[in-house]
TrEMBL record:
Species assigned in the record: Betta splendens
Top-level taxon in the UniProt lineage: Eukaryota
Topology in the lipid bilayer: Multi-pass membrane protein
Domain MARVEL: start-end pairs: 1-202
Gene: synprb
Identification of the protein by name: Synaptoporin b
Entry similarity comment: Belongs to the synaptophysin/synaptobrevin family.
Record-annotated membrane-spanning stretches: 81-103, 115-138, 180-198
């Protein structure tokens, strides 16, 4: 089955690309007073993306001190839900593989295995769809919260026109974008697998056992039934006619036998005078004797 082969692989790819992510954003602040400049401000974040807990220090150009700033976003719920669905889908795929390979007879017994598999596949399809959509929205919020323009606006020194602030390094997003793609691939995979699991259930077999006949099939069945009835009636009629013919022949033979009970006549050679060459009919059996 396609789920046995591809589902564990894509589930691993989905939660691994999301759960093991860590990114870094670097900015620099050039104050009008060069002594207060900080050329390397690193902002590290990662899974589960509780950005409101990520803090960094930025210099205050007006005074010789620093301020502590926090990012503004929390995408932990969407990220953890997405990873949890991936882990559970991976574990269920492994369990289904073991059952398909080693317990095929028990799986098909009483039709319970296919029904449970069918319902679980529907549930995972819905969960993959919801978690992928939520994680796509959460990733969009993370990108917005870690946007260098948005981060520089949090720094007080960067809001002054005499100071210069720039981003020196941006976090890579390819890995998180790939996790979203794998999430929707799992949606298609598990959604398509619903049909193959449904074919193993008794509901599909019941529908195939009693197919709906078309109008042409009904007409053909009616013709066959009429032909069979006529074929059964014809032998009875022919048998009755044949029996009547036999009865008439038997009555005629009885009358003929009763009218000619004489002794058999003997014809020696040629016919006698006054007699025709053909023997008279209805005079009983004839015996022919050849002359030597």
């Amino acid at each position: 089955m396609c789920m046995v082969i591809f589902a564990p692989i894509f589930a691993i790819c989905a939660f691994a690309t999301c759960g093991g992510y860590s990114g870094r954003l670097q900015v620099k602040v050039d104050c009008a007073d060069r002594r207060q400049s900080n050329l390397s401000i690193s902002i590290d974040f990662g899974y589960p993306f509780r950005l409101q807990q990520v803090h960094f220090r930025a210099p205050l150009c007006e005074a010789r001190r620093e301020e502590v700033l926090f990012l503004d976003q929390d995408a932990s719920a969407a990220a953890q839900y997405f990873v949890s669905v991936g882990v559970f889908a991976f574990l269920y795929s492994l369990l289904a593989t073991v059952v398909y390979v080693f317990y095929q007879d028990k799986y098909l017994r009483n039709n319970r295995g296919p029904l449970v598999d069918f319902l679980v596949t529907i549930i995972f399809s819905i969960m993959w769809l919801v978690s992928s959509c939520c994680w796509a929205k959460g990733l969009s919020d993370i990108k917005s919260a870690t946007n260098p323009t948005q981060v520089l606006l949090l720094i007080s020194a960067c809001r002054a026109q005499e100071n210069r602030c720039t981003a020196t390094q941006e976090p890579p997003w390819s890995r998180l974008n790939t996790s979203v793609v794998f999430g929707f691939v799992n949606v298609v995979l598990w959604g398509g697998n619903i049909w193959f699991v449904f074919k193993e259930t008794g509901w599909y077999k019941t529908g195939q056992r009693y197919p709906n006949r078309s109008a042409s099939g009904k007409r053909n069945g009616m013709r066959q039934r009429l032909y069979s009835e006529s074929s059964f009636e014809q032998p009875e009629e022919s048998g009755a006619a044949h029996s009547q013919c036999r009865e008439v022949q038997r009555q005629g033979s009885v009358k003929q036998g009763s009218g000619s009970l004489g002794l058999p006549q003997t014809y020696l050679g040629k016919p006698g005078p006054g007699e025709s060459g053909a023997p008279p009919a209805s005079r009983g059996p004839m015996i022919l004797v050849n002359e030597m």
